[in-house]
Amino acid sequence: MSSSPTIRSIGSPYPSAAVSAPRAASTASPASAPTSGASDSVQLSPMARWMHQLDTLPPIRRHLVDVVRAEIDTDRYETPQRLDRAIDALADDLF
Protein backbone atom coordinates (compact mmCIF):
# COMPACT_ATOMS: atom_id res chain seq x y z
CA MET A 1 0.00 0.00 0.00
CA SER A 2 1.20 3.53 -0.81
CA SER A 3 2.12 5.95 1.95
CA SER A 4 0.32 8.86 0.22
CA PRO A 5 -3.47 8.73 0.23
CA THR A 6 -5.49 8.85 -2.97
CA ILE A 7 -8.53 11.02 -3.46
CA ARG A 8 -11.37 9.45 -5.37
CA SER A 9 -14.40 11.14 -6.84
CA ILE A 10 -17.77 9.68 -5.98
CA GLY A 11 -19.18 10.21 -9.47
CA SER A 12 -16.19 9.29 -11.65
CA PRO A 13 -15.21 5.72 -12.60
CA TYR A 14 -11.60 6.84 -13.10
CA PRO A 15 -9.16 6.92 -10.17
CA SER A 16 -7.89 10.33 -9.15
CA ALA A 17 -4.21 11.17 -8.87
CA ALA A 18 -2.38 10.62 -5.63
CA VAL A 19 -1.80 13.60 -3.37
CA SER A 20 1.77 14.84 -3.64
CA ALA A 21 3.89 17.81 -2.69
CA PRO A 22 3.15 21.10 -4.50
CA ARG A 23 5.00 21.64 -7.74
CA ALA A 24 7.26 24.62 -8.35
CA ALA A 25 5.69 27.37 -10.45
CA SER A 26 6.89 27.82 -13.99
CA THR A 27 9.46 30.57 -14.39
CA ALA A 28 8.57 31.38 -18.01
CA SER A 29 7.40 34.95 -18.38
CA PRO A 30 4.29 35.78 -20.42
CA ALA A 31 6.41 37.95 -22.73
CA SER A 32 8.44 34.94 -23.83
CA ALA A 33 5.36 32.99 -24.87
CA PRO A 34 4.93 32.79 -28.64
CA THR A 35 2.18 34.96 -30.06
CA SER A 36 0.44 34.37 -33.33
CA GLY A 37 -1.27 37.75 -33.57
CA ALA A 38 -4.65 36.03 -33.58
CA SER A 39 -7.43 37.19 -31.33
CA ASP A 40 -10.47 35.43 -29.98
CA SER A 41 -13.82 36.09 -31.59
CA VAL A 42 -17.41 35.17 -30.91
CA GLN A 43 -20.15 34.61 -33.48
CA LEU A 44 -23.71 34.92 -32.25
CA SER A 45 -26.47 32.86 -33.78
CA PRO A 46 -29.50 34.60 -35.29
CA MET A 47 -31.54 33.38 -32.30
CA ALA A 48 -29.05 34.93 -29.86
CA ARG A 49 -29.18 38.24 -31.75
CA TRP A 50 -32.99 38.15 -31.65
CA MET A 51 -33.00 37.40 -27.92
CA HIS A 52 -30.65 40.35 -27.36
CA GLN A 53 -33.00 42.63 -29.29
CA LEU A 54 -35.90 41.46 -27.11
CA ASP A 55 -33.89 42.28 -23.99
CA THR A 56 -33.31 45.84 -25.20
CA LEU A 57 -36.98 46.62 -25.93
CA PRO A 58 -38.81 48.94 -23.55
CA PRO A 59 -41.27 47.31 -21.17
CA ILE A 60 -44.84 46.73 -22.36
CA ARG A 61 -47.39 49.20 -21.05
CA ARG A 62 -49.98 46.56 -20.16
CA HIS A 63 -52.67 49.11 -19.21
CA LEU A 64 -52.46 50.83 -22.60
CA VAL A 65 -52.61 47.48 -24.42
CA ASP A 66 -55.73 46.53 -22.45
CA VAL A 67 -57.40 49.89 -23.23
CA VAL A 68 -56.71 49.58 -26.97
CA ARG A 69 -57.93 45.96 -27.05
CA ALA A 70 -61.15 46.99 -25.31
CA GLU A 71 -61.65 49.80 -27.86
CA ILE A 72 -61.08 47.37 -30.75
CA ASP A 73 -63.49 44.82 -29.24
CA THR A 74 -66.23 47.45 -28.88
CA ASP A 75 -65.63 49.01 -32.34
CA ARG A 76 -64.52 52.33 -30.80
CA TYR A 77 -60.89 52.23 -31.97
CA GLU A 78 -61.28 53.04 -35.66
CA THR A 79 -62.61 56.59 -35.68
CA PRO A 80 -62.74 58.91 -38.70
CA GLN A 81 -60.03 61.07 -37.12
CA ARG A 82 -57.65 58.13 -36.66
CA LEU A 83 -58.27 56.94 -40.21
CA ASP A 84 -57.58 60.45 -41.57
CA ARG A 85 -54.30 60.62 -39.63
CA ALA A 86 -53.28 57.17 -40.88
CA ILE A 87 -54.07 58.11 -44.49
CA ASP A 88 -52.16 61.39 -44.18
CA ALA A 89 -49.13 59.60 -42.69
CA LEU A 90 -49.22 57.00 -45.47
CA ALA A 91 -49.43 59.72 -48.13
CA ASP A 92 -46.48 61.55 -46.54
CA ASP A 93 -44.42 58.35 -46.64
CA LEU A 94 -45.29 57.64 -50.27
CA PHE A 95 -44.84 61.15 -51.68
Describe the structure.
- The protein is mainly α and 95 residues long.
- It has a domain at 60-95.
- It contains three helices and no strands.
- It has helices at residues 46-56, 62-73, 80-94.
- The longest helix has 15 residues, at 80-94.
- The termini are far apart.
- The mean pLDDT is 80.
The SS-based structural class is mainly alpha
Q: Please write the string of helix (H) and strand (E) elements.
A: HHH
Largest sheet: none
Principal-axis shape equals elongated
Quaternary structure: single chain
Low-confidence stretches: none
* Beta fraction: under 5%
Strand segment tally: 0
Compute the separation of the termini in Å. Answer: 92 Å
Q: What is the radius of gyration?
A: 33 Å
Give the averaged pLDDT, no decimals.
80
Helix content: 40-55%
Number of helices: 3
